[in-house]
Each structure stands twice: as C-alpha cells, then as structure tokens.
Amino acid sequence: MKLLLLGLLAAMLVWGRQTRAQKAICSKYEHDEIRLRLMYGTNCTSFCHCATLATHDDATVTYYWERQNCSAGTQFDSSKGVCNHVGDFVCEAICSKYEHDEIRLRLMHGTNCTSFCHCATLATHDDAKVTYYWERQNCSAGTQFDSSKKVCNHVGDFVCEAICSKYEHDEIRLRLMYGTNCTSFCHCATLATHDDATVTYYWERQNCSAGTQFDSSKGVCNHVGDFVCEDGWLTPSAQSSQHTPTTPIDCLVSQWTPWSGPLGFGQMTRERKILRVPANGGTACPAQLEEEKQSTQKPTIQSTATAMVSYLIRQPSVIKRGEAVGQLRDLLIIVDSSGSIGLASFETAKTQLARLLGMLCPISDPFDSRFQRAALLEYSSDVREIFDFDDKPNTKLVQQGVNSMPYMNAGTCTTTAFNYAYNNMFNTTKGMRNSTDVKQEVLILTDGQSNCVGNVTSAALKLQEKADVFGLMIGINTQSGMNELTNYVSYPKNKHLFAIEGFQALEALVNEIEKQVKNVPCVAFDV
Prior knowledge:
Strand content: 25-35%
Number of helices: 11
Shape: globular
CATH class of the domain at 299-314 and 326-517: Alpha Beta
C-alpha cells in the first residue's frame, strides 16, 4: 500500500509539472512592461494577460499567458491595451523579416478567404533594423484570396486553403487551428503533385470529436480537462527577451490614405492608422485618425448601391468559435410619412423598401425569425407602430407589413419618432433579442428636416446609444438639411449615410443593389 501511495504521489507530481509546462510562459519583462497583448486567431475578441503561474522557493517567479475575452461589441485594441469599440482602431500583428522577404502575403484565417495579410514596414529604427507588421487587406466582392497564387481570384476557380511547406508536412504534420478553442486542428496534406515531381501541400482542417480538444503537446485530440489548451499563444521566436528597453519610442502613424470617393451627401473621408504605440515616455499618438470634407460632387447610383451592399445589405461576418458566420440583426425601420413626400412617392418608397428587405441574408428567407427580425414605425405629426420584432416571422409577412402602411400626410416630427423608438422599441417585450450574438440596428427613410418641437440631434444621439443607425435620405438639397440629417446616423458617417436625389431614383438604386448582391454571397449562419 505504501508503494502504491508513493507511486500515485509521483504520478501526480509528474502530471503537475507537465500541466505547467504546457502553459505558454511569458517573461518578467513581458509581465512588467507589456502585460496585455492580442490573442491571434480570435479576430481581436480575446487577449492574453501575462499572469503569475508560480512563485518558487528562491523567490523567482514564473509567468504565463492567460486568455481573457473582450465584452460583446468590442475588440482588443493593441495600441491602447484595452477592449475598444469595433471599428475604432486597426488590429495588427508583427511579422518577421523572413515573412516580409519570402512570404509577403498570406491568408487571413477566419474570413472565409475574403481577406489577406500583407507583411508591411512598421518602422525603421536608428540601428537600421526594421519592424514589420501584418496589415489586413480585403479582396473585392466576388473574389477570395488564392494562397497558391497569392492573389484575389474569382470564387470557385481554386481551393481556398493555406499552403504549408515540405518541412511542415514532414516534421510537423498536425497543428492547432487557432481561434477554435482547441476543437479543430490542421493537417498538412498533399494538394498537388506537379510535372517536375515537386509537391504542393496545404493545411486541411479537421475537427475533434465531441468532448475532446486538440492537445498540441501530443498531436492528438484528448479529453477536455486532461491537458491545458494552448490557443493563440506566442511562438518561441516571437517571445520577448528579458532585456528592458529604456530608449523613448515615439508613436508612429501611417500616411493619410487618399480621399475616398463621395458618399452620402458628398462627404469624402481619409484615414491614417497607428502603426506603433509610444513607450518609455515617447511622443504620444495624434488624436485625429480620420478626416472628412464636403465635396460638391455627388455620389452616383452605382457607388451608393455599392456602399449599401457593403455596409447594410451584406454586412461583414462575425467570428464565432473561430468560424466566420453571418451577423444576426434586429432591424427597426422608421419611415417618414409626412405631407412633403406625396402619396405617389410614399407608395414608391414602400414598394422599394419591401424589395430591399428581401435582399438581406440568408437569401432563402432573411426574416425567418431565427435569423433577422424587423419592426416598423412610421411617423408624421405622431408615430404609428406598424409591427414589432416578433410579429412577422418570415420575409413575406414583413414585406406585406411594409406595403400595408397607410399614408399619414402631415408634419415631420422626427424628434418624436426617435424618442418613441428609444423609449419603447428596444426591449424584449417588443420581441427584441437580448443576446450578444444579435446586433440592434435602425434604418430611417426620410425626405427632409424635422419641423416639430424638440432637439432632433439630441434624440438621434440617444437612439445611437441603443442601436447602429443607418439612413437612406431622399431629395435633401439644402446645407442645413444635410447637416441635420448627417447627425441622425452612427459613426463612421460614410458607412451609415446613403443619399439619392429624389424618389424617382429609388427604383434605380434598388435595381442596382439587386444586381450587385448577386456577386456577394451570404455567409452561413450559426443558429
């Protein structure tokens, strides 16, 4: 019995040492100076915290990278070391000189091959050394990144896979697929054998069976809890040394991008990115990273349609369990029914709005209540609630509800409509889903400024606290009107504000959107 107990104790000690060894170790410098860093492969939704693993008898301390998750709607901002609102910063990672010189471009995992990374210059230092970083770039609509040719290619013309090397095939073979919580792994398999007898290999995804995870230390799927899952830790070559730098490092920002083409009411934007954050008392980063100017040039129907397809109709996917999946939405539609529109134009607006809603994802039935949900308000001198989020469980019923709206033909009390939406619509009693997987949005259709009492800008800003607000503005030609309606929508304005000259252009806009969405497939949903 004594020998048995000693054996069990020895086994427990060995298991303990193995478990600690499987954690990703960070250094004292990383603990004291860096502390937090992006967890790669999670689309910036998680970060790593250099925490204490053990304090030893000789007073030395071992640290390890501990995974932590950002709250819903935020991502980890490496430039500030905090979780920040999505879209307010650029998520970047460092690459090596070898990757810059020999690889340069690679697939961005978790984007269904719609994006790739470019190893670009981050900074040239006083000692002539260069730091490089992975810069995200997107393929144009209807194309994906072809890793075998390192170009964006037409969908279906190639196999979307990440290429692996002969060394990885012969020596590594299996590796963790980051961002999957260890439920999947990659197998370096043969893609093609060429006429000159050379072989191209690619990373083939494979999934562990239920209740198991990929154990990187053994290269097998193992029972959950029998090991520590290392998802997204630094590779040894990327770990920092113990040296503590003291030289001030100034902030480095990119050059301004060229001015965009005109969108909305003719607004043009340009932006720059933070490429290096300051350290050791270096010069701080500038506060202004985006500029906007007004142009006399108006956007075309085609460019407005492209913006609506990109930012409203076919929104970017979200990452869930390491996979790109479709965005679930609760969409509140607010329609101006004032006397300035006229009955004929109001009927046109209803018809084209109903068509537009049918183009959301998934194509078969966007407003199947498992996917998207819609609620509808119309307003004039007062507000009418046409239907709630849980009243119309499929697209056909949503479209019928839109087409059934009566014309109110009175004032334009936009403030009243915004306040009603803020106070009444975004709660579960109206069928809104209280889930971090579901995004709340507003789409307002209007032809002019509010002409009732109340601060419409204040009401709009309050509504933007509840939801992401888009606007389709029709026939707005005065500067005061453009200024007011620009305040209705969320930031960035060029991704939320769409404008056309009049109701006579609305059908042409929807026709162009219908044409463009055929080349932009929907991402699969996870419900």
